[in-house]
Amino acid sequence: METQYNTNEQEAARQKEIMERLKVRIAALSESLGRPLTYCSVCFGCQMNAKDSEKLEGILETIGYVRTESEEADFLIMNTCTVRENANLRVYGRLGQLKKYKKKNPNMMIALCGCMMQESLVVEKIKQSYRHVDIIFGTHNVFKLAELIERRLDAKGMVIDIWEGTDEIVEDLPSERKYPFKCGVNIMFGCNNFCSYCIVPYVRGRERSRKPEDILAEIRALVADGVVEVMLLGQNVNSYGKNLEHPISFAELLRQVEQIEGLRRIRFMTSHPKDLSDELIAVMAASTKICRHLHLPVQSGSTKVLKDMNRRYTKEDYLNLVSRIRAAMPDISLTTDIIVGFPTETEKDFEDTLDIVRKVRYDSAFTFIYSKRTGTPAAAMEAAADEETVKKRFDRLLSEVQEIAKETCGRYQGETVEVLVEGVDEQDHRLLTGRLSNNLLVHFPGEKELIGTFQQVKLTEARGFYYIGERK
Ligand code: 5AD
Ligand code: SF4
Asked: How many helices (H) and strands (E) does the chain have?
């Protein structure tokens, strides 16, 4: 059962008081050292984590830390992901390296947060083997960073604060936006789907939707502050609002967001195919602001594997849904996530995955080798294929996906389209990078003053997954 988040204004005020106190302490420390104190923010994982990191960075900036990209900082915060085992391994690797920085700089503090910290075995391991970590917290209490820093400054030893779950949201705290012109907005937290391979429901808790009025107020404030594009974020946005006191559908929320004057583009992530309604398709098709892109994770093309994954749709259901979407929006870009080597996947099942990829023809697909997550139902299933077979399947899938993507992505060559200019091209500084409504990128000559504006760009050359263009 989804619970509604209670907005806790008192708590936000309390955190702001702590930030004021810390501001004084950090300023004093900085003065005695004769230099500003720096922070480095490292983020693994999905868009939800990226959003949380912006909140953490907002708090650190408010109390007086200055951003640096170097991990040799006075405050290092690592926001972790645990969706696959190698995400965890990367964190342990980094932690080992950080020890030497901490030896050099006695003022250094290391904080860990995010999904991985919601696993008790992980926290035990860090307590035992990585004692140079100062602060550990989880996914439910990101807003408390200032309080945890204060506690660490006042007492010796690791500060650990992990919540099993929560029915609260603390809003209206500082957030450091990565881009002035676009921003992610949480519309819900957690997940109720329990796909059998996935650890997210265990580390992010049950679904909790934010009230539409809070979401709309946040977006209006962002727009007043220069934001032209929002990404509505949730683990499964299609089940947004079902259990609010006054239930509302995701499609209806989109309709209301669309009304916000000054907002130009709306994106959202992630959609579960089983909950994608015809109402949503209709709202998207009629909209001038909702971008022509849907990320629709399929995970597998085999109905049997989908059942074992607890995805609650069949191969046919998915293909049917894609047909309905394409009938309403022929120009839509579809992207997906696919897992290869799920325990019950046989060669025949894998062929079904290749088949669905060929039928849907995705613009791009994130492909993953199945990773066993302790505590999930799939972890108890016996593997049908060995590692080498799975790796071979993965390579076959990847080349299929890439070949199709190259063809489908190039379909707009020669057209002139509206793009939002997002920045200077990292490879070639004479070029700007703009994003099309369908999420593809185009690089074209231009001045950096255009960043954050919309431009008409002719897509002169398709280069696989991006375009080269010129301003019109
Ligand atoms: N192993 C491999 N991939 C996984 N994902 C989620 N859990 C696992 C796992 N145990 C993938 C899914 C999901 C994406 C975010 O990560 O494809 O859509
Ligand atoms: Fe994980 Fe499935 Fe929830 Fe996505 S919908 S977060 S894959 S349990």
From this structure: 13, 21
Whole-structure pTM value: 0.92
Cα-only R_g, the chain? 23
Long-range contacts (CB closer than 8 Å, 24 or more residues apart) made by 465-469: 465/364, 465/405, 465/406, 465/409, 465/440, 465/441, 466/409, 466/440, 466/441, 466/442, 467/412, 467/413, 467/440, 467/441, 467/442, 467/443, 468/442, 468/443, 468/444, 469/419, 469/434, 469/442, 469/443, 469/444
- The closest alpha carbon to 298, from 367, 377, 346, 233, belongs to 367
- pLDDT value of residue 168: 72
The pLDDT confidence band at residue 6, using thresholds 50, 70 and 90, is low
Q: Where does the pLDDT of residue 319 fall: very low under 50, low under 70, confident under 90, or very high at 90 and above?
A: very high
Q: What is the CB < 6 Å shell around ligand 1?
A: 83-84, 197-198, 297, 299, 337, 339, 368, 370-371, 373
State the closest ligand 2 atom to the C-alpha of 194, by its place in the atom list counted from 1: 8
For 2, 260, 430, the CA distances from 252, given in Å and listed in that order, are 19, 14, 42
d(CA 264, CA 435): 13
> Position of tokens 């988040």?
5
CB count within 10 Å of CB 286 equals 11
Which residues sit with their C-beta closer than 6 Å to ligand 2?
Answer: 191, 193-195, 198, 200-201, 235-236, 272
| Beta strands 159-161 and 441-445, pairing class | unpaired
In the reported structure, the alpha carbon of residue 294 is separated from the centroid of ligand 1 by a whole-number distance in angstroms of: 18
Q: What's the gap in Å between 284 CA and the centre of ligand 1?
A: 27
Could you give the CA distance from residue 40 to residue 75 in angstroms, rounded to a whole number? Answer: 6
Q: Write out the E strands in 321-465.
A: 333-340, 364-369, 416-424, 431-436, 441-445, 454-462
Nearest alpha-carbon partner for 39 in 104, 127, 107? 107
Q: E strands, 259-332, where?
A: 265-269, 293-295
CA distances to 144, 151, 174, 209 from 12, rounded to whole Å, are 9, 17, 10, 19
**CA–CA dist 458, 456 (Å, integer):** 7
pLDDT tens-digit series, residues 72-102: 999 999 999 999 999 999 999 999 999 999 9
Give bridge partners of residue 189 from the DSSP assignment.
Answer: 208
Q: Judge if the upstream peptide bond of residue 344 is cis by omega within 30 degrees of 0.
A: no
Ligand 1 atom 14: residue of nearest CA: 337
Does residue 4 register a pLDDT over 50? Answer: no
Quick: pLDDT tens for 408-452.
Answer: 999 999 999 999 999 999 999 999 999 999 999 999 999 999 999
- Closest by CA to 105, choosing from 155, 33, 25, is 33
Tokens of residue 215, six digits = 């979401």
State which ligand 2 atom lies nearest to the alpha carbon of 236. 5
